[in-house]
Amino acid sequence: MNNITLIGMPGAGKSTLGVVLAKILGYEFLDSDLLIQKEEKRRLYQIIDEEGEDGFKAIENRVNASIDTENTVIATGGSVVYCSEAMEHLKSIGKVVYLSLSLESLEKRLGNLKKRGVLLKEGQTLKSLYEERVPLYEKYADIVVDEEGKDLEASLQALLETLQTGVIK
């Protein structure tokens, strides 16, 4: 399978970069958060509020593990890396690309985390979430693209070069 799955923190640009990448490659584009909302007929933050953290993870795991597509750029939710079944499935159907960005840059990009449907534990900060997730992103990534200091065009160029050469940056 030749899909490209984008993982990374909320605000790293998975959806934005994914749409443009899909156009350039002539691929389909799939946002797994939107797929979750469609299947559940609720917004992400509503699912988290109503089902709790574990309930949301179960739904996220089920939906991502059932993605059956080819020639598609898949933008995932930032918390998909907690779902080992989903991550193994996504790795089996293509390359997993981690869009890496510093905590400082993410803080500048992000607005209301709750309305974005970001999975935060009670009292958890963006910093502690970042520190918890980065090792998981690195664990599952086939390719890492450092987006630090790059605009959309530069990030896209770095990703395309990495995909063509297969060299991890």
From TrEMBL:
CDD domains associated with the record: SK
Protein name: Shikimate kinase
Enzyme Commission number(s) from the entry: 2.7.1.71
Gene3D superfamilies with a match to the protein in the record: P-loop containing nucleotide triphosphate hydrolases
Oligomer status and interactors: Monomer.
Family, per entry: Belongs to the shikimate kinase family.
Record gene name: aroK
GO function term, MF aspect, one: kinase activity
Entry keyword set: Amino-acid biosynthesis, Aromatic amino acid biosynthesis, ATP-binding, Cytoplasm, Kinase, Magnesium, Metal-binding, Nucleotide-binding, Transferase
Protein localization: Cytoplasm
Reactions performed catalytically: shikimate + ATP = 3-phosphoshikimate + ADP + H(+)
Keyword Transcription regulation: no
Enzyme class: transferase
Function: Catalyzes the specific phosphorylation of the 3-hydroxyl group of shikimic acid using ATP as a cosubstrate.
Cofactor(s) required, per the database record: Mg(2+)
Pathway(s): Metabolic intermediate biosynthesis; chorismate biosynthesis; chorismate from D-erythrose 4-phosphate and phosphoenolpyruvate: step 5/7
HAMAP family assigned: Shikimate_kinase (MF_00109)
Binding site for substrate: 33, 78, 133
Positions that bind ATP: 11-16, 116
Domain of life from the UniProt record: Bacteria
